[in-house]
Amino acid sequence: MTSLPGLAETADHALPLHAATAATFAAWRDQQTPAVQAWLQAQGFTAAAGTHALLPGSEGLAGAVLGVADLRDPFAWAHAPYALPAGEWRMADALDADAQAALQLGWGLGSYRFTRYRAATRAPARLIGAIDAEVAAQLAACARVRDLVNTPTEDMGPADLEAVTREIAQAHGADIDVLVGDDLLLHNFPAIHAVGRASHRDPRLIVLHWGDPSHPHIAIVGKGVCFDTGGLDVKAAAGMRNMKKDMGGAAHAIALAELIMARRLPVRITLLVPAVENALGPNAYRPGEVIATRKGISVEIDNTDAEGRIVLCDALAYAAEQTPQLILDFATLTGAARIALGPDLPVLFANEDRVANDWLDAGLRTHDPLWRMPLHRPYLRYLSSGIADIANGSSTPMAGCITAALYLDRFVPNDLPWAHLDVYSWNDSDRPGRPAGGEAQALRACWAMLKARFG
Predict the structure, then answer these.
(1) Helices (H), 308-395
(2) Over 90: is that where the pLDDT of 5 sits?
(3) Beta bridge partners of 89
(4) b/e for 204-237, b at 16 or more Cβ within 10 A?
């Protein structure tokens, strides 16, 4: 088993760790020695959610008790790795399988720190016990998203994203093809090329294939805008500051593909990552241009900062050509989604109720929530163009995330099940299990949905 932050299979010595909810704490406390009861009372400890108390012993520290709101919620445990002193800890009382999985998942998520450029200030407390392989794979997927998004663009440009995908493909016996630069034009991916052509780092389309041809086919698409200046419709400094995260959709797609391969879900996958930088330059695509797309739909550029839908439309058209049973796409697509639902709830669009409902239900089961918004097709009128088939920007500030999804919908056949997730991919501040920086959102829910459907 590969080592995971905060988790270990064995240790020579581990302190006992108890867990209680506010409802069960009194019964647990009454079973302790009078000295421990007095100690807890002196601290005013009531096992409120997200709290802990260290327990004294004759030779120093004898153990600890955690306040946990819901034993089956991973984030209820996530404060433990940095609340407790560094060292080894073992649960003193048995948990059922669901609570044990939540404990390990929450502990792993809470232990994560991005350490590529500086060391962590301290090591997390380590939980000792047999590590569930399913939990380990989900933690690795979440860490993959966080690491990719947290890495600055200088070290995570289109070629770097390709290198990561190649490494994953090699590890799992997948095939990979990459179209770079003007080869995109030769192979009819003009929209991807248009967005990325101004950068000194060539745009590309990364295509990974894996799985038994007899298995159900899933296409997974991720927006890989490795940095977004806004193009000639340049962003203000505040809006550009965190645009290294604009490849968060690609990070989700890559991590999901890696998770599927690692757990050998009986499906066949095609992973598509259009990887570009939306840069300023003498040949940057311009407002008012009409660009071609793979599907043959002409697009008038209303706003060069609405570039994500431009690169995705070519990738979605190609995905549809492969006639998969399901297309999933992930993208940091709109600020309107954040205005509607805030940073924690990704916005889901789907052209089939079953796909949407399965994903939503999985989100509730896994404590990895998302929320569905409507593909209200009458709003396509907001994307009308006087000189092209469609515009890439809306004529109104209303319904911004819906019009973006409707744009993508034009490039997917109505009879092909498709779901689009508009993700923030980011935590603005530190919370237990959710450190500031890159974040995987609704990824575990998506995995649970796919397992239920194809496992």
Answers:
(1) 308-321, 335-341, 353-366
(2) no
(3) 15, 127
(4) bbbbbbbbeeeebbbbbbbbbbbbbbbbbbeeee
Q: Can you give the pTM of this predicted structure?
A: 0.97
Token pair in block for residue 93: 């009382």
- Residue 414 is inside which H or E element, if any? none
Phi and psi at residue 29, in whole multiples of 5°?
A: -60, -40
Q: Across the strands, what pairs with 15? A: 89
The total of other beta-carbon atoms located within 10 Å of residue 76's CB is 25
Quick one: pLDDT at residue 3?
60
HSE-up (13 A, CA, CB side) for residue 277: 22
* CB atoms inside a 10 Å sphere around CB 38: 11
Matching residue, tokens 């890989």? 224
Residues with a catalytic annotation lie at 235, 309
Q: Are 165 and 210 in contact, with CB atoms under 8 Å apart?
A: no
CB 311 within 8 A of CB 238: no
Please state, in angstroms and rounded to a whole number, the distance separating the CA atoms of residues 310 and 305.
Answer: 10
Other CB atoms within 10 Å distance of the CB of residue 126: 22
| pLDDT > 70? residue 63 | yes
Whether 204 contacts 178, CB under 8 Å = yes
Q: Delimit the domains of the chain by residue range.
A: 7-111, 138-454
Please give the average per-residue pLDDT across 230-237, as a whole number: 98
> What is the arithmetic mean of pLDDT over 372-399?
97
Residue pair 303/197 in contact (Cβ under 8 Å)? The answer is: no
Instruction: Give tens-digit pLDDT for 6-15.
Output: 999 999 999 9
**Sequence-distant (≥ 6) Cβ neighbours of residue 451 within 8 angstroms:** 265
Is the CATH number 3.40.220.10 carried by domain 7-111? Answer: yes
Contact between residue 311 and residue 332 where contact means Cβ atoms under 8 Å apart: no
Q: How many CB atoms lie within 10 A of CB 154?
A: 10
The token pair at 127 is 């939980």
Confidence band for 289, pLDDT divided at 50, 70 and 90: very high
Same topology, domains 7-111 and 138-454? Answer is no
Q: Which of 431, 448, 421, 264 is nearest to 366 (CA)?
A: 448
% pLDDT > 70, the chain: 99
CATH topology assigned to domain 138-454: Aminopeptidase (3.40.630)
> CA-CA distance, 162 to 155, in Å (whole number)?
12
pLDDT digits (tens, 9 = 90+) for 141-197: 999 999 999 999 999 999 999 999 999 999 999 999 999 999 999 999 999 999 999
